[in-house]
Each structure stands twice: as structure tokens, then as C-alpha cells.
Amino acid sequence: MQEYYRGEKRVTLIVIGCVVGLLLIIFLSRTIKVVSPGFVGVRVLFGKVVEPTLKEGLHFINPFASVIRPDIRTQAYTMSGMVREGRIRGDDAISALTKEGLRVKLDLTIWYRVDPEKAGEIYRTIGMDYENKIVRPGVRTVIRDITSRFTTEDIYAEKRPQVTAAIQDVATEMLEERGMICEKVLVRNVALPEKVRDAIDLKLAAEQDALKMEFVLRKAEKQAEVKVVEAEGIAKAQRIINRTLTVKYLQHEAIEAYKALAGSPNTTFIIMPTSPEGAGIPLIIGK
């Protein structure tokens, strides 16, 4: 009988030990939290966000708190007219009016990320669906506002970098107010009505032709200037030569030339006198 009670007591202790161990495991699982790289941990205790946010790594927290893990890596949100290219399947290009009132469509990608220091505020004031609540409508509004300040030609060709920079500046300010960081805005395509696009292309082609002709004219002017300078140099040299040229000098040069001809074994020539000074013209009569 005594052995029976001892065995029953042992079983009870084992059961109690198992329950305590299970409770301990549950307690530790709720106390120890791991935040993966590229995320932060937002603690929520009894319906309230607890600051500060948890960085990546191992953390011990209140077992009654839950942890939300927002992604703080760079995210790309694309709005495009191409099917299956953006987040929205189908034509999701931004339709906007230019300064002249013409309608254009823009394909755009924005690179952004959540500010780690403001992840708790974002979760408390916006929630985890910040992309559809803030990023998408905010950026589309910014694009329509900036587009209305530029002409169609500026957006399509000449000033697209300035348009992109203006969109990025305003989008950066807008997202910063809501706890996000805008890294870059990419205007990937500008679609115009066909007639407007053709007219702009013709104008740009005409401007390029005009610039080409202007270059050709400038080149011709420079070549003419060079020829004038060369002619002036030749004329100046001739004036100097004429002032220093004498009959005796010419006779000396002629004699030296005759000597060179006389030294040639294959040439026979006769000097025909043409002046009282004895100068003449060599007449080659055979080789």
C-alpha cells in the first residue's frame, strides 16, 4: 500500500514538472524575440505602442507584449501603363495635364523605405498598409501638381531631368512628414497624343538641322579666316623677298642650279642666254 502511494506521488511530481516545463517554454518563447536583418520590431503592450523600436538581433521583452516587424529595406513602387509591370495589373500610368492643358501619361517608379526611427509612429498612425494609404495617392498627387507647371515639350524632351528632380523634391518632403524616406524617383516613360508627339519630334529635328547648319557656317568662316591669314603671310613674304632680291643673287642661284644639272650623268642641256648678265634658260635636249 505504501509503495502504491509512493508511485502515485512520483507520477504527480512528473506531471507537475512537465506542466512547469511547458509553462517555462511558453514564457521564454514570448519573452525572447528575434528581429531579422532588414526589419525592426515594434512592441505593442496592452494596445499601446512601446518605444523605442527594436533593432535587428536577439531581444528580451515583456511576455505580454507582441512584436510587429515592419520592413525597412528599399522598396520599389511602379505605376505603369504596361500590363503586369506595376503593382496594379493593367494600365496604371499617371494621367496629368500640362501647362497648356494637354493630357499626358507618365510611367514612374519610386524607391522608398520606412525610417527605422519612425516605424512605431507609422504603425500607430497609419498601419502596415502605408503603401496604398500614403505612397501611391501621395506620389500621384505630386506628379499631377508638378506636371501642370511645365509645357508638354519640356516634359517630353528638353526638361525631363528638371521635371523628375521637382517631383523627387516634393515627394521627399511629403513622405518625410509621414515617416518614410524617398531615395529616388524615376520617370520611365512619357506618353503623348500621337499628333502632339509627331509635332514635337518635327520641331526637335528642325532645331537639330539648324544647329548643324550653324556649325557648318562657323566651320566655313574659320576656314576662310585661316586662308586669309595664309594669304596675308604669303603676300608679306613676297614683299620681303622683292625688297631683298637682286640680279647678282639671281645669277648666283642660277649658276648653282646649272652645277646641279651638270652633275647629272643622264642629262644633256644647253644654256640659252636671255639677258645681258649672262643668265639663261637651260634647254634639255637629251638623256
Automatic annotation (TrEMBL):
Q: Which domain of life is it from?
A: Bacteria
Provide the taxonomic classification. Answer: Bacteria, Bacteria division WOR-3
**Where is the Band domain positioned along the sequence?**
30-204
Q: Which PANTHER family match?
A: PROHIBITIN, PROHIBITIN 1
Q: Where are the transmembrane segments?
A: 12-29
Cellular-component GO terms for this entry:
membrane
**What keywords sit in the KW lines?**
Membrane, Transmembrane, Transmembrane helix
Protein name from the UniProt record: Band 7 domain-containing protein
Kindly name one Pfam family recorded for this protein: Band_7
What InterPro entries would the database entry show?
A: Band_7 (IPR001107), Band_7/SPFH_dom_sf (IPR036013), Prohibitin (IPR000163)
